[in-house]
Amino acid sequence: MHQDQPAQQPGTPAPDAPPPVPGIAEDTALELLVHGVGGSTPAEMLDDPCTVRVSGDQTAAVHRRAQDADAEQRPEDYRGKPVPEAYVWSNLTSGNGTRALWLLLLPFMVVNLAHWMRPSTTGRRTAVRLYGLLARLVALSLTVLLTAAACEVALDLVAWQCAGTASCSGERAWLGFLATDAQGSGGWWSQPGRRLALAALVPGALTALLWYLSHRTWRSYEAQQPLPAVDRAEQEAEENAPHAALGRPGFWYGRRLGARLRAAHTSAGLLTVGAAVGGPAAEHDRLPGGPALLSTVGSALQAALLVNAVAVVWVVSRRGRAESRLDEHLDRLVRVLPLTALALTLLSLGYAAWSRPGWQSAGRLPGDETFGTLVLAQGVLVVALAATARRLHATTPERRTVLKGLGGPAVAMLACALGGVMSGGVAQRVADWLDNGSTPGAPGGPIPGPPVLLSWQASVLPPLLVILLAVLVWYAVRTHRHARREEAQVAADYPGEPLDATRTAKIASARAMAALTDRAPVVVGVVSSVTLLLGAGALLGAWTTGRVPGEAARELPAVVSGAAATAQALGSWLIGFGFLLFVTWGRRAYRDPAARRTIGILWDVGTFWPRAAHPFAPPCYAERSVPDLTWRIASWTRETGGRVVLSGHSQGSVLAAAAAWQLRPSARRRVALLTYGSPLERLYGRWFPAHFGPVALTTLHGEVDCWRNLWRHTDPIGGPVRVGTEGRPEVDRPPLADPLAHGRTAAHPLPAPILGHSDYQADPAFAEERARLLARLEEPAAALPKQLNAAEGQPAQGSAGRSSG
């Protein structure tokens, strides 16, 4: 297999103006193709079944056609055309089956996204830091919620309630060694403290597994050295530029913060387990007549757990990412904090397992108010996050920013809701299984069931779904009306062609459906607002009544009590079904490559960003792919001094832009960007304005040699990038015709398909724009503003030249 020219080694600075390598023509051009969501194969990208890997590994690599493997040695064969290469990164997100299990980490991924949705602002550094702090605290609460849910199932429902009730444990032989008989006696493990200590192995193992996966995936995905800095003046200029965030040397390398957050979240999980086991034992020992020594030990352990919990919050609250340099030095607390938490947890298990012959379990496990405290804390944090986001947005308001700067808080609220559905769902399903299918919390069951708040949270799901259904119906009506209005425009876009009403309606419907992407922020805002209000109502109902909804409304009018009982029963089923859906989808994806590919598409969008808020989120593939691209481009420009067309489709265009920002200015000026089906402005610019807002994209336009963007009205993901020109050529080409012909023509004797988001390279406009970019790269700097302007204002055949959204 042919190996590419050796890349620069980490830590070795490359010269700013590299001399050309003997035997390689300086005017040789490279076209580096980057695929989008869902992935692609080298053969598909290069349109050739014979390809070779020239750099990289099985996870992510650069490929060429076999005939181009030694292109550097035959520069005369590539005069007037580029050397095509394909960067394939799909295995970073949709590779082996174990990655389907990342579905269970969905709430962590969503809250990590909320961290990056900070509004764009000038100044307000204190508010920016406060926003990051609040996002990290919401993320910490989700770790505690997940661990508390595991404790609820293993400790409360199984070890405390079922094993302590003869009617429940008698039907399950596997609980025999833990069970008590009708007189409250049993074997050595039958004492409540010992049952709790043994059951604590389940949430403890879960916490250890999350730590292991986070540490392992960091080494596999994110431990990639970015390009080294050349000189201090150039580095300072990059840090102070308007695009400072994505161009900073340490943006894609957050080792120190990742290790610090991993230590804090691991400690939080272990401390939750320790409190869940030691708390009930300490409460029992403080009863009148209890053993004084054990009571003192229990109080001391609880105080130590509290002090350690405060230390965890302090660690999370410390300053976040240091992006202006490589954050390589680890804090000592990275080891001290988890080891201390582990020691306290083991002491709590030993303390709870101490013999207490008269202790019997009854009712629910003491401490179930933890869920109410967590829900209240999450609500307060989300509201504070919203207030901070509004303050930031007010300083630099941007019209296209979603929800007037409240996109991050809305998504954080959805993360909390997802965490509630998953934690409550598993508790409800296990309770249904243990009490033989009766509604959890209802009288007459063999066990009391999960905490009252979880039943209240399940009861608000039916009204939430009704409201969501109403919003979707409203949008369906609006989309239908939009499609009817669009029919006239479709007819105008294909002048001189015979029109067919059915075909026109189909094209108009595709355009209207694609426009729904621009309406998504409203749906997210409505759902998150309703979720916050219903969650507050559920918390208030649980705390004021202390009973499940059906029992709390029993004495009210029949209509109200019937509705409450129905909502409780239906909600219990729905929340359990939601959790089973996650498990089933993950199991299917583990076995089915097609389903695994679908899940990979979700991660393509959700795991682009580094794990800056939650260390247990799925790994960030961009911390591998962006350094890959920057090293490849820097290597090529160093060896040839020549030109690069960086060609990105969909999510690949986002990676291309991020890689261009990471290049040194001398290399960036030799790069042309060709993006198509790009969500750079339509999704990233609107949802992540601090990093992809108008200022950042306009700056990128001014720093690369040239940039062209292709889009269609029928594309639900890609769109125009809408950057200012400032004397430079326009970035956006008028929208491409889709389909290329309305009906059958001499050029298209068979019906042309509606392509939407796919097959941009099959459009003649793609080759045309690529040729212009290559020609423009050859022009002297004085000619920069002129090359592409001659083609401006001429829509592609059948296009209207309008902006989407």
Automatic annotation (TrEMBL):
Top-rank lineage group of the source organism: Bacteria
Protein name as annotated: Uncharacterized protein
